[in-house]
Amino acid sequence: MSASEIAVLLDNAKLEIQAHRFTEALQLLDQAGRLSSTPVREREFLRGLCLSSLQRAKEALAAFEREYEHFPLHPQAKEMILDARTAYIRQLYDKIMPLDSKLIEAETAKLICGLQETVMLWEAGDSDEALRSCMRVFAEALPVPGAFELFINAIKRRR
Prior knowledge:
- There is one protein chain.
- The chain is built from 9 helices and no strands.
- It is 75% helix and 0% strand.
- The chain has helices at residues 3-18, 22-34, 43-53, 57-70, 77-96, 101-105, 109-123, 127-140, 147-158.
- The termini are far apart.
- It is an all-alpha fold.
């Protein structure tokens, strides 16, 4: 398939995104990926946008990271990586322990960054270090009485 045919698939995917048909856009983007033996500029970025809109933050993060890896001069890829990391951390945290809306409003950037470190350690299998990281986060960024214990109990129940 020629580069122009791949470009048409990308253009059609953009139209689907504008129409908020993210699943259909993903199908077109995946088709474009199968037809090219090399990375296609914007494809992973557009996939990331679709996946973010579908609340699939982990997959969105991976897509934005791939776009940035292959095309580091992409004007928005690095920014979207940060946004996707934040969304992914928030999704994980909300799954583990849903928060009171007032507490969510009170979250700080330090809390998000600290939880990101905690989740990365947890997913890497280092649960002891993840728990220590989590303890630091709650002690420094979220000094709410009992919040850390609730978080740890929620993690233990998920095992």
